[in-house]
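[step 3/7] inverse_fold.run input=structure_tokens len=112
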């Protein structure tokens, strides 16, 4: 009855001396190192992602300002085109009036 779960009155000494837990400590140390390494990697990756996002925001900002400048220049060019077109129409009208006057004066001079 040496393999029972009941306590016995006789004192028995353990047959095996306590085992050194070197392997257990090594495994715990490796797991801790892996955990710290993964945290370090996550922090490094997040920092790298943040820098990339900031660079893209700066690039977007500069492209947006360039687009605004180009749009403003386009609007100014359209205004100048409208102005030149209007002036051209006025000059064509004056030319037509002058041409009619010239034609009328030619007819008068031919009749006399």
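[step 3/7] decode complete -> sequence:
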């Amino acid at each position: 009855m040496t393999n029972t779960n009941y306590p016995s009155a006789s004192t028995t000494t353990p047959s095996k001396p306590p085992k050194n837990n070197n392997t257990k400590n090594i495994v715990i140390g490796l797991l801790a190192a892996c955990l710290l390494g993964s945290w370090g990697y996550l922090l490094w990756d997040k920092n790298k992602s943040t820098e990339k996002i900031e660079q893209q925001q700066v690039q977007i900002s500069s492209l947006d300002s360039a687009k605004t400048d180009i749009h403003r220049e386009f609007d100014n060019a359209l205004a100048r085109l409208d102005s030149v077109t209007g002036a051209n129409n006025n000059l064509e009208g004056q030319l037509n009036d002058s041409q009619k006057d010239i034609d009328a004066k030619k007819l008068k001079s031919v009749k006399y």
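[step 4/7] annotate
The chain is about 80% helix and 0% strand.
The radius of gyration is 48 Å.
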